[in-house]
Structures are given as C-alpha cells and as structure tokens.
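User: Hi! I'm working on a homework problem where we have to compare a predicted structure to a textbook description. Could you give me the structure for the chain below?
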Amino acid sequence: MTAPLQYFIVDAFTDRPFAGNPAAVVPLSAWRPDGWLQSVAMEMNLSETAFVVRRDGGGFDLRWFTPKVEVDLCGHATLASAVALSQLGHLPDGAEIKFSTRSGVLSAGRRGDRYQLDFPLKPESPAAAPPGLVEALGVAPRYVGKNQFDYLVEAESEDAVRRAAPDFKRLAQTECRGIIVTARSATPEFDFVSRFFAPAAGIDEDPVTGSAHCCLADFWGRRLGKTALVGYQASARGGVVQVELRGQRVLLAGQGVLVARGELLVD
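Assistant: Happy to help. Predicted structure tokens:
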C-alpha cells in the first residue's frame, strides 16, 4: 500500500462549524486517473470534493467533482481549498494564490480568517421556463433567466424562496446544471436570498453555492443599482456570501472553518 493521502473537510461561507457548505479537499502530488477522482468524490459524498496539484511554475491546478460528475466552476470548494492550503502553509495571511481550472485562472486571497475569490461573472438573460420546471419547483416565478450553467427563477418574496419544496425527481429532468431560486431580502441585513437545486448533478439542494453568486451578483446588482452586495443562501445550513462586481469579474468573500482532517488509506 502506498503512503496515505491527507484530506481536509471545510465548512465554507460560514464562521462556525456545521453550517455553510462542507467540501472535501484532497491535495495530490500528481494527477490520478479521472475514475479514481470520481470514486473518491463519491466516497466523500459531499456536494463537491476538490483536488489540488501544485504546478511547477507556481500556483495549483484545481478540479471539482460532485458524487456524480466533474463540474466547471465551484465557489465553496475553492474557498475550502484555500483554507486547506493555508493549513499546509501555502497561503499565509495577506497572501494570494492562483488556481488553474476549467474556468480559467482563479485567485484566492486571505485576510485572517476571511477569504476572497476572484471569479468570472456569469450573467443570465431572459429565458422561457422549460416544460415542467415551474411545476417541479412549486414556485410562482416573477422572472426566469438562464446563464451558461443554470436557470434563475425570481420568486415573489423571501418567504416563497424559503418555503420552496421541489419535486427533485421531476426537477432532475431539466437540462441544466442547476436552478437558482432567489428574491430580495426581507431584512436590511442582506440584499437578497437564494437557494440552489441541482438534482441532475447528484445534489438535491446545495447548502451555499459560490458559483451561483457569479450570476446573482449581476442580477441583483443591476436591479438594486449596487456593486457590492451581501447574499444569504437560505438552505438548512445557511451561509453568507459577500459579492463585489468588477467588470466581467466578481469577488466572492466569506469565511471557512476546518472541521476535520484525515487520511485516505486506499489507492
């Protein structure tokens, strides 16, 4: 048996354990076969497992897997990767690190226990709801849009977002990565609230979805006339994502809590 591989589990976009969105992070010295990566993600059984490999020229390669598929962009597992690399001494306070990913080069900066991610903006445009989407969500839409990855459904109120109880089997038939349901916040603490459903990718409801905020930042920024906003993802675990629009980029900021570390004993 080869030497065990260390892994970390981090709760992202939260300042306390057992909240936010948990992700596993597995640092590797070199890439393993895709089937092995997918098997580890299935074993971890979290919404995402991140794998990082240090690059010869500096920075890290980064890939993200759900229990079923590899994904093109993931915010919370990138933040979790930054937390794990901080634990390993690769991201000291005040520093920044570069990740090479399927969505280009992303960066993560650290200021104490707060992490800021530089991600591409993923704006939506108006779209017709595909057959069965509204019925599967059980939410009356004020607006429906679609971007590169997801459908976005604006609900009438925060209460409607919180009360949504989708039929996940029917929702999984929608051809997209996931569905963002959002509304303006009912309290001044936040600008908007959201939830994210991705049953087709093996995730009925994602607790906190950084990549969805690459769309939400633009959507609510235009409606509210603001470039800096605070979103609350109203899942059972809950999480806070601060966003700042920078042209065709968006800064996603939040905290992360290391809750476990362990070893993979099988190759």
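For your comparison, note the following. The chain has six helices and 17 strands. Residues 62 and 147 are 23 Å apart (CA to CA). Good luck with the assignment!
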